[in-house]
Request: fold
Amino acid sequence: MKVISTKSYEQYHREQFRRNSSVQPLWQLLDQVKDPEIPVLSLWDIGILKDIKQNSEEVIVTVTPTYSGCPAMDIIKEDIEQLLYTNGYKKVTVVSELSPPWTTEWMTEKGKKQLRGYGIATPTDILPCKRGQHDELHSTIICPHCSSENTTMISEFGSTACKALFKCNDCCEPFDLFKKL
Amino acid sequence: MTDLQLELDVINYSKRLGDDALILGQRLSEWVSQGPFLEEDIAIGNVALDYVGRARMFYSYCAQIENIHTNSVQKTEDDYAYLRDEREYQNYLINELPIGDFAFTTVRQLLVDYFNKYFLSNLKDSNDSTLCAIAQKAEKETQYHCKRSKNWTLRLGDGTSESNTRMQNALNEVWGYIPELFEHDELENRLIERGIAVDCSEFKAQWLNDINVILQASQLEIPTIEWQVTGGRAGYHTEYLGHILAQMQYLHRCHPGASW
Reply:
């Protein structure tokens, strides 16, 4: 059976980049660092871990913020440093790079599944809408709890800037949507 | 123009853009815990956070350039936010006006968010790579700000007669602060020539058209007024800026370097 990949072009290139890196143990080690606001997601799976380099003196980790005001960035930086120091690395530099800007396309498939399991809908849960309007307000969002398509937006911004708040009219549970960016 | 003059201009320009974002972000944050309902309270808080985050990026860039030439104490974003007085702030006046009622906040946000939409889209083409990177980041967030302020304008403008009146009053009150957004001083002209700063007059017609369409759908009218106020870019402010700075800077000035 032929399988059609649903992986985005951007995601495909990220994975290639990681696979071709010469510091595989470091990538695996940093998979332990989770997003402090969504503790099921690793930095890699959410797409904010861009690069890891190592020379004789130091490890340089490049990350990018999801939103410019994201308060989690400082904690993420500390978490990376702490993990690497406890694993015997002597000098660690975390660089924050703005360009190219983070996009939800960089989220891995595994990350999206984990988000859904955590009760957060992802940009892939936005059904294309019939009226030609391509935003959450006019599209159908699938409830991550009961998979109903009968959902309503409560607010453009949810518990954090990267999310919008919805409610499901069938299971009556509220849920967040990780907005497409 | 010498390289040093150019660098000074870029520092100043980035500082202005930081000032615009910080003052509006601080204003918006005044709604936290006072929003019309819980979800909206959180939404405003998040928009405020986006603006403050934007200010951090612009100020950090100022510090980065300034520090190259200084061997003494290295500046940080906090120096610009907490240790400058009224006359040193160069934000547009519209950003410092008090939050007023929810209609006033909504109207200001509509006008400024749509201004930023075009401004950032143009700044993305700047010859300065850092300003360009900040614009790329901020532009994406601004799409969501515009959506939110547009939806609120429709809801309140085309709402009850009370909400419509309040929205129209807010428009009348704020409209005189609009011309300033499309003016340029010498510094900006020099940078526009270099392809670094944005020439806002280029997108004024598009901006006005967007606003017109939304206002018409919201049963609101563009005011016909004969007054206008400018001065923010030159450091001349309304009486309101001093108060907001006092509130924002109090802790840092009483306990220099405080952190938690």
Q: What stands out?
A: The longest helix of chain B spans residues 38-68. The mean pLDDT of chain B is 95.
